[in-house]
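ok so heres the complex, two chains, lmk if somethin looks off
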Amino acid sequence: MKAYLIKRILSALVIMWAVASIVFFAMRLVPADPAQVVLGDYATEEALKTFRHEMGLDRPLWAQYTEFMAQLARGDLGRSMITNRPIGDQIWALFPYTFDLAISSMLIGAIIGIPLGVWAAIRKNSAVDYISRIIALAGFSFPAFYLGVLLLLVFSVELGWFPIIHQVRTGSPAEHLYKLILPALSLGLIQASYVTRLTRSSMLEALNEDYVRTAFAKGLRPKNVYFKHVLKNIMIPVVTAIGLYTGTILGGAILTETVFNRPGMGKLLVGAINQRDYTTIQSGLMVFAFIVVVVNLIVDLTYCLFDPKVKYE
Amino acid sequence: MNDTHPDAQDKGLTKPPEPREDFGLIREIWRILKQDRTAFCGFFIIVGLVGVAIFAPWIAPYGFSEQHIVHSFKGPGTTFLLGTDEFGRDLLSRIIWGTRPALIVGVLSVLVSIGIGVPIGVVAGYKLGWIDRVVGWMVDIMLSFPSLLLGLMIVTLLGQGIYKVIVAIGISHIAQYIRLARGPTMALRNHDFVRAARALGAGDLRITFNHVLPNIVGPIIIMGTLSIAGAIRMEASLSFLGLGIQPPAPSWGNMIREGVANILQTPWMALFPGLALTFTVLAYNMVGDSLRDMFDPRLVLGRKPGGKSK
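and the predicted structre for the whole thing:
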């Protein structure tokens, strides 16, 4: 167990290193000259040179790389090429927004998806099952940002219950929550369709197991079999799988933040790409990928903590 | 006819009847489509969409960049069925023209992923050793990026435009195909019929093309159909972020973007392109889903006892 733990953490670290390297070199492959992009077409040769020197772009690639890695190891994400502000501070300031959005949509997904999936599996081929299948298909097909647009059209434009621009101005928690509702719903409802489908299929698989047949043969009431035996067994895989959707949720968050004009890491990244602020793009991409790696690691470790069936060496 | 051909007779004796199923596969898919109403509806919609894409110039009432400045921001009406945008361009025409980039990006980007991913996966699964380890690493790293993020990174590198979007979406989904091809190849390389072929002196290339590939075509086609839906959605997402297909070229994604920017004046501008997008993705999902259910042996086994007991 301990050996597995160490091995798993080490491999996560190596993947993070590889991700950082790939992003670093990818940004060096950009055909445009960053100095020209920042200073504009009419910059003098002199100014371009000074800029390159300040950003360290005139140094050999390996020197830039070792410097970048050393900075990263110290937790320093560098400075924005355009505003010259520390990127770490910006990401840290925006992290809570994206975090709230991701967590609340995961919760919405689980609260709707798990009961619906269980119900659909128990009443297989009934109306409920049929509805769950339609919801799942719709969820797979609705791009998260379009659902956001629809919510915006109905609740903000038509009914006027919510603002069009979800900028959070004051720090009050009530306002925070109020402006989280629509974005979280648009991501969470999509999430619910994934969870419904997942719960339904793992429930169906579990219903075919021998222990279920045994439980029924003993004459237990169906309610007890479903909730005390089956549900207990499928909860671990379902919950961990929900954790593994983090990547999808983060991708969806980038879009949702753009639809609702909500501050967040995704909006920062898209803005940076539009402005061609390469250092911010680099750090933004890295932080997103790191979050996915770390969440996967945590999910993996909790999985082997909670599931007695999983034993590693 | 088979009986008279000595070669064919010989093959029938030495080979299991499975490989060489190009025709069988198409027939199988057709059989599934006929059985499954959902899949059939989806297939029907897709055929319709392809028709719309091909005949766009004749179906669309106006050109996709034809501006009628006097009529800008018109609501849905008789001259402009679905209304117009800020430049007075007919929305219906733009949606019809938008079918083209959506379908082209969807299909071509999947072909890019298959074209790069499957060979890598087959080589890794067949050769094993250090190649396999390196490929395994690559897959792990690629999967730690959410696919939209990977697409964003590649778009940053390449710039915007339809062909760059195709490459970006294609590359960001390679990992799934590497995995899909690697596993079965690894299993197949030790199968008796492959070993027999090797004993008879067949080279690696011959074994790959005649014995390995025909056996993994099925899953690849299913995955391909399913990922066309995802690719269309991703193109719309990139264009929606302003990083995909650039206006005035019509793309449902960038039309929704323009619609959201003017959501108070022209709510219909965001509504209609999104409907087209959703229906297209839905159609591909309907077909892909049913195909997957049919081909997944685990699900088929799970279905029978449940179906009988009801």
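quick notes: Chain A touches chain B through 52 residues (CB under 8 Å). thats all i got rn
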